[in-house]
Design brief:
This protein is α+β, with helices and mostly antiparallel strands. The protein is built from 9 helices and 14 strands. Strand 12 and strand 13 form a beta hairpin. It binds pyridoxal-5'-phosphate.
Length: about 290
């Protein structure tokens, strides 16, 4: 595996007169301060961007979501041109590999300093051939919040891509304990939401349908690209309120995310469900062929 690349932004927030650019540092060296709120409180945000053939995919959408997450956490607005050029610098500094990912990490910084910290990490991706072709087993887990949570309780930050992913990782461990690969969260009022690191898409007849983004879920960049690909293939697309019954009756279903791309769902809570191998292959080749 080629060496990862680590770049520290000199000024991750948009501030007049702030130093611009980045510093490349040894990826094995300790770089974060022990009092950085990203570490001590998970108080920060991130993005993970797939890089295929040297092209950071859906970069504009990821940067827009970084800005949106920052606003939801009352973080200073990120300096998007600085983040963009640091992403390209990471790609330039990394050995050419077929698939890699770039992580953008933006934290509130050292407690009391009022200076956010930001860094960009790039490394080769794992091999997801099996998940993309054979599919994944998922379990449904109660998220414990109603589907109205984003509107009623914005301080819960549902729908922001925060560094506080301990719950998402605990849910994935619960899936493993149940003999599955992944999770789809369901709201306390029975609405289908998202996975801990992915969006869900259902094929219902000649339509591809995904849960509405106002349900307190992350608006997915991959889901958005899949809808573009689906429209080119003659499918209608829609954002709707869906339930576990819709997942069970769907002609096909996927969890979609950066890096793994589209993983077809082959069972839900142990009950097998149909795959659409042809459509899955054309979605994944469409995703890999993105040029922006
Ligand atoms: N939902 C959650 C909670 C996520 O963490 C992610 C990605 O990590 C997604 C959905 C999928 O987003 P994207 O397709 O932009 O990677």
């Amino acid at each position: 595996m080629p060496s990862p690349v680590l770049l520290l932004l000199r000024s991750p927030a948009a501030r007049d007169g702030a130093p611009s650019g980045y510093d490349q540092v040894d990826p094995a060296a300790p770089v974060a301060n022990a009092l950085d709120l990203g570490i001590t409180r998970g108080d920060g945000i991130f993005e993970t961007i797939t890089v295929i053939g040297g092209i950071p995919q859906a970069l504009d959408a990821h940067l827009a979501r970084l800005e949106r997450s920052a606003a939801m956490l009352d973080l200073p607005a990120p300096d998007l041109p600085a983040w963009r050029s640091t992403v390209f610098a990471a790609v330039d500094a990394h050995t050419d590999v077929p698939e890699a990912f770039v992580k953008l990490l933006y934290s509130r910084g050292i407690e009391g300093s009022d200076a956010p910290t930001g860094w960009v990490w790039m490394q080769q991706s794992g091999d997801f051939t099996r998940e993309r072709s054979e599919g994944i087993d998922v379990v449904l887990l109660d998220r414990g919040y109603p589907s109205t949570v984003a509107e009623t309780s914005p301080w819960l930050l549902q729908g922001a891509k925060t560094l506080s992913y301990a719950i998402n990782r605990a849910a994935l461990r619960e899936a493993k304990r149940r003999g599955a690969d992944d999770v789809i969260f369901v709201s306390s009022d029975g609405v289908l939401l998202e996975g801990p690191t992915a969006n869900v898409i259902l094929k219902l007849g000649d339509r591809l349908v995904t849960p509405k983004p106002d349900l307190g879920i992350l608006p997915g960049t991959t889901q958005h690209s899949v809808f573009d690909i689906a429209k080119l293939n003659g499918y209608a697309t829609a954002y709707e309120t869906l339930t576990p019954a819709d997942l069970r009756r769907a002609d096909a279903a996927w969890l979609v995310s950066s890096v793994r791309n589209a993983a077809p769902i082959r069972s839900v809570d142990g009950a097998p469900r149909a795959l659409d191998a042809q459509l899955t292959a054309s979605i994944n080749s469409g995703l890999a062929a993105r040029t922006t």
